[in-house]
UniProtKB/TrEMBL annotation:
Binds 2 [4Fe-4S] clusters. One cluster is coordinated with 3 cysteines and an exchangeable S-adenosyl-L-methionine. Residues 31-147 form the MTTase N-terminal domain. It catalyses: N(6)-dimethylallyladenosine(37) in tRNA + (sulfur carrier)-SH + AH2 + 2 S-adenosyl-L-methionine = 2-methylsulfanyl-N(6)-dimethylallyladenosine(37) in tRNA + (sulfur carrier)-H + 5'-deoxyadenosine + L-methionine + A + S-adenosyl-L-homocysteine + 2 H(+). [4Fe-4S] cluster 1 binds at residues 40, 76, 110. InterPro entries: Elp3/MiaA/NifB-like_rSAM, Methylthiotransferase, Methylthiotransferase_CS, Methylthiotransferase_N, Methylthiotransferase_N_sf, MiaB_methiolase, rSAM, rSAM_horseshoe. The gene is miaB. Belongs to the methylthiotransferase family. MiaB subfamily. This is tRNA-2-methylthio-N(6)-dimethylallyladenosine synthase.
Length: 475
């Protein structure tokens, strides 16, 4: 669930992007909010819920914090570095508050949940602290904060899915959008803080998901990504149609909105992705052939300490099954180096698993102990930092080679590509993605294509991160 730049070493997935909806909207409101989002795609999606709630309260979004009445940081706790980045940013805003006493600053998301009122103990750092399940109470909390009270709501919920709130699409390209289908996580991977900051897993009403996909399609969007910490455990009892909706069924229903609407999803847990999901993917052309399947470690012993509940062999069999059912499936991964007790042999196991899985792309991290997690309580963070970093470097170098090899194999092939916008480097080129989620750039030439069109592109060249091609008539 990430900004899919190939082979990024993740400190934070995306850092502090500020967004606002269409410029025209900015003048309709008398109060303005500015929001920066950090971390995973779920946070970016949550910011769109927050924007919707604030818009109903008369707040318009702005990209310029200097004209904002309310500044919000939607934060990430996944690694220590992510938290440090936010802290630094908050100190910058504290300085701004000194010269603009009316300005309210709020912390949202995982750091708010983890640190709770600790933020308020620090003089003038923030006025509002709001956890991921408490966004509906933002209007009341803002009102309290406006009267000079410090306001906090970090209650986690077993039910909240914001199903009825129509997200305000922020910083949108008008072609691709995210739909949150579930919240929280029950998995308890021992390194991970998410179960503590986002609470118990719960699925969103299937009807509201389909309605959101249909609405996006009606507004010209051509691709939706179904988002959740663990999408494969989606489960909804649909009393209206007397039906149990699994993730496979949900995928099918979204795919049926229109063959012109591409469907992606993230993130899958290797233990939960089923044949039903894989067979549904192979049945519908518009469900993209791409799976983000985090490995974390290639050593069965480490996987056990991580509480991932699968072995190296089990993961390998899963990759084999994916390739049997969807031969051209793109697969990416998350890898952690230097988890507690990791030996050189364990590390070698990770490298060999990466090679066997032949990932197209990976997000790679070194282990960062998070307070309160199972690992922090049970195990010693005993791999020295320089060893963690050296292993990370090796993992990155291997992934660079695997990505290069994967792209090389695509030369000469033709892909159906959805145009997302101009290429970053040149307005004379389009940028889009193929089903496998690879970025392809190609010259616009004299063709009459526009953003949101599907085109066939033949690959002529490549870099480690990008395919380079030209438009052709057909596959
Ligand atoms: N240290 C390093 N990486 C972590 N991740 C989660 N928790 C930690 C941690 N404590 C990584 C995992 C996960 C991704 C979103 O972040 O690889 O899949
Ligand atoms: Fe964290 Fe594991 Fe849940 Fe992912 S599946 S959010 S890594 S606990």
């Amino acid at each position: 669930m990430q900004d899919l730049v190939a082979n990024k070493v993740h400190d934070e997935t995306r850092q502090g992007e500020a967004f606002a909806p269409f410029a025209n909207d900015e003048n309709q409101y008398n109060k303005k909010f500015y929001i920066e989002s950090y971390g995973c795609q779920m946070n970016f999606s949550d910011s769109e819920i927050v924007a919707s709630i604030l818009q109903n309260e008369g707040f318009g979004a702005t990209r310029n914090y200097e004209e904002a009445d309310l500044v919000l940081l939607n934060t990430c706790s996944i690694r220590e570095k992510a938290e440090q980045t936010v802290r630094k940013r908050l100190t910058e805003f504290r300085k701004i508050k000194d010269s603009r006493p009316g300005l309210l600053v709020g912390v949202l998301g995982c750091m708010a949940e983890r640190l709770k009122s600790k933020f308020l103990e620090e003089e003038k750092l923030v006025d509002l602290v709001v956890g991921p399940d408490a966004y509906r109470t933002l209007p009341v909390l803002i009102e309290e904060a406006e009267t000079g009270q410090k306001s906090v709501n970090v209650l986690l919920s077993r039910e909240e899915t914001y199903a009825d709130i129509s997200p305000v699409r922020l910083d949108t390209n008008g072609v691709t959008a995210f739909i949150s289908i579930m919240r929280g996580c029950n998995n308890m991977c021992s390194f991970c803080v998410v179960p503590f900051t986002r609470g118990r897993e719960r699925s969103r009403d299937v009807h509201s998901i389909i309605a959101e996909a249909q609405n996006l399609f009606d507004r010209g969007y051509k691709e939706v990504t179904l988002l959740g910490q663990n999408v494969d455990s989606y489960y909804w009892i649909d009393e209206v149609n007397d039906e149990i909706v699994t993730f496979g069924k949900l995928l099918e229903k979204v795919a049926l909105v229109s063959p012109e609407l591409r469907v992606r999803f993230s993130t899958s847990h290797p233990k939960d992705i089923t044949d039903e999901v894989l067979l549904t993917m192979s049945k519908y052309d518009n469900i993209c052939n791409y799976i983000h399947l985090p490995l974390q470690s290639g050593s069965t012993r480490v996987l056990q300490l991580m509480n991932r509940t699968y072995t190296r062999e089990w993961y390998m069999a899963k990759v084999k099954r994916i390739r049997e059912i969807i031969p051209d499936c793109g697969i990416s991964s998350d890898i952690i180096t230097g988890f507690c007790t990791e030996t050189e042999e364990d590390h070698t196991d990770t490298l060999s698993m990466m090679e066997t899985s032949a990932y197209d792309m990976s997000y790679m991290f070194f282990y960062s102990e998070r307070p309160g997690t199972l690992a922090a309580r049970r195990y010693k963070d005993d791999v020295p930092e320089e060893v963690k970093k050296r292993r990370l470097k090796e993992v990155v170098e291997l992934q660079n080679r695997l990505s290069y090899e994967s792209n090389k194999k695509d030369v000469g092939k033709t892909f159906k590509v959805l145009i997302e916008g101009n290429s970053k480097k040149s307005d004379a080129d389009w940028m889009g993605r193929n089903s496998q989620n690879k970025v392809i750039v190609f010259p616009k030439e004299n063709y009459n294509y526009k953003k949101g069109d599907y085109v066939f592109v033949k690959v002529n060249d490549f870099t480690q991160a990008t395919l380079i091609g030209e438009v052709v008539k057909e596959l």
